[in-house]
Amino acid sequence: MRYIRYAFLGGLAVVLIAVALANRDIVTLTLLPGAVSDLLGLNHAIQLPLFAVIFIAIVFGVIIGFVWEWLREHRHRADKTKAQKELHKSQREVRRLKGREAEKKDEVLTLLDEAS
User: Fold this and answer.
1) Which portions of this protein are annotated as coiled-coil regions (predicted)?
2) 0.70 exceeded by the pTM?
3) Nearest CA to 33 among 17, 22, 45?
4) CA dihedral 43, 46, 50, 55 (to 10 degrees)
5) How confident is the model at residue 78 (pLDDT cuts 50, 70, 90)?
């Protein structure tokens, strides 16, 4: 399994290097379209190689996907926590009732019940 992972990571590295070498041209990224940026006075622009823009977009997409899933699964985590609390409460109640029942029984019978 380890070799499959290494082969996959090696192949991914080759693909990423090929994309980076094929897209080395400098591109200009602007914050807003020209008319809107002139209106608002926000004329921010940055020049980066195209492969950097592609890789940054992929990383942001993955991060947004992880956050989206984490927020979407919040209800499931809350339900699980609630179920665990109720399970522990029920287990405490069973132990308490067994203890109360054990007071009424003979000591030998109590030991046999605890062993089973």
Assistant:
1) 80-107
2) no
3) 45
4) -100
5) very high
